[in-house]
Design a protein that fits this description.
alpha/beta, 11 helices, single chain, 17 strands, globular
Length: 377
């Protein structure tokens, strides 16, 4: 049997990893500034994380949600504490797409409506409704097509007001990334997020803050949306939540009342997933990683903005987009294959930096030095 060939692959096999460093099968060392799509939040093979997961595996790895799992309660308590949403409720699942799918379903259950407002450049996942709310027709199969999604221009307050005026009480939810990832590291403005909150309040629609990539402390705030000073009704999270272990969740405001069978999952919230997620939050808290993300990210952004060849530097904390002119489209590949630095990308020519939240200033300088070397030719 062959693998189903849907991923363009770099000819690199990673065999060892520690912190923000990985090694390939030939022993070559790389600086990892991408963390496997913003997944590695506390560094590869962090000792506390490894111990937490290993200890749990030696007790019980899995049982279903038909029994009490105290680790779930411990995770909910710690997540409420670290995020500041202590009165919210937690539903655990497995991936960002599943988190967004459940958030949209929850919204529709809540107000009995069908329309969802999403935005140009959005990426919310590949499951049925999440992919329909994703601004990429190429990955929306015919069976996923629906007229329930209304796409609006990003950060356009007038268009948002007009949509609510036109559709009013048909709108179940507004879903928005605090900072678009696949869309090119484009931040939702404070006035725009505040307007979403006020319109959702006025029309009893649900404000869903997609924090799958931009959340979990990456920007220096636990949820990047919190910069606007208003609460969303539902926060979705996944990538950095388990530091590589598949775990996701939705944080749900008190006004939503659950009933048995409303949402469900087989693997979500299993013993190992909760142990991994608890380890992440414990390390984030003990090591002050949100503050580090804010400070090292601000340093990187400041230094990058001094480089004239860059069209634009976007983002906040350790979620950074470097928008390059077309003639510098080779930079990402050269960083990887010549200077051994992993970065991400967004089309057409945006380099995405999504490193572990404990990235050091020295590692940031290492990247800046190699980046400038390439630009000097």
């Amino acid at each position: 049997m062959n693998l189903f060939d849907v991923y363009p692959l770099n000819d690199i096999e990673i065999v060892k990893a520690s912190g923000s460093t990985v090694w390939d099968a030939s022993g070559q060392e790389y600086l990892d500034l991408y963390g496997g799509h913003a997944v590695i939040s506390i560094g590869h093979t962090h000792p506390h994380y490894v111990k937490r997961v290993t200890d749990q595996l030696n007790k019980v790895g899995f049982y279903s949600n038909s029994v009490k799992i105290p680790l779930q309660t411990a995770l909910a308590d710690k997540l409420g504490q670290v995020s500041g949403k202590t009165d919210y409720q937690l539903f655990l699942c497995n991936s960002g797409a599943e988190a967004n799918e459940n958030a949209l379903k929850l919204a529709s259950f809540y107000n009995g409506r069908k329309k969802v407002i999403a935005f140009k450049g959005a990426f919310h996942g590949r499951t049925s409704l999440a992919v329909s709310a994703t601004d990429n027709p190429k990955i929306i199969a015919p069976v996923n097509e629906t007229d329930h999604i209304v796409f609006l221009p990003h950060n356009d307050v007038e268009a948002l007001e007009e949509a609510f005026s036109n559709y009013g009480n048909e709108i179940a939810a507004v879903i928005i990334e605090g900072i678009q990832g696949v869309g090119g590291i484009k931040e939702a403005s404070v006035p725009f997020l505040q307007k979403i909150r006020s319109l959702c309040d006025a029309y009893n629609a649900v404000y869903i803050a997609d924090s799958v990539q931009c959340g979990y402390g990456r920007t220096g705030l636990f949820y990047s949306h919190d910069v606007a000073g208003v609460n969303a009704d539902v926060y979705t999270m996944a990538k950095g939540m388990g530091n590589g272990f598949p775990v996701a969740g939705i944080s749900i405001a008190p006004k939503f009342k659950p009933w048995h069978g409303m949402l469900g999952t087989t693997f979500g919230g299993n013993h190992l997933a909760c142990a991994a997620a608890l380890a992440v939050l414990e390390v984030m808290e003990q090591d002050g990683l949100m503050k580090n993300a804010e400070e090292v990210g601000a340093y990187l952004i400041s230094e990058l903005k001094k480089i004239e060849a860059i069209k634009e530097v976007r983002g906040r904390g350790l979620m950074i987009g470097i928008d390059l002119p077309e003639e510098l489209g080779h930079v990402k590949k050269e960083l990887l294959f010549k200077h051994h630095i992993f970065t991400g990308e967004a089309k057409p020519n945006v380099i995405r930096l999504l490193p572990a939240l404990n990235l050091t200033k020295e590692q940031a300088d290492q990247f800046l030095d190699k980046f400038k070397t390439i630009l000097r030719g």
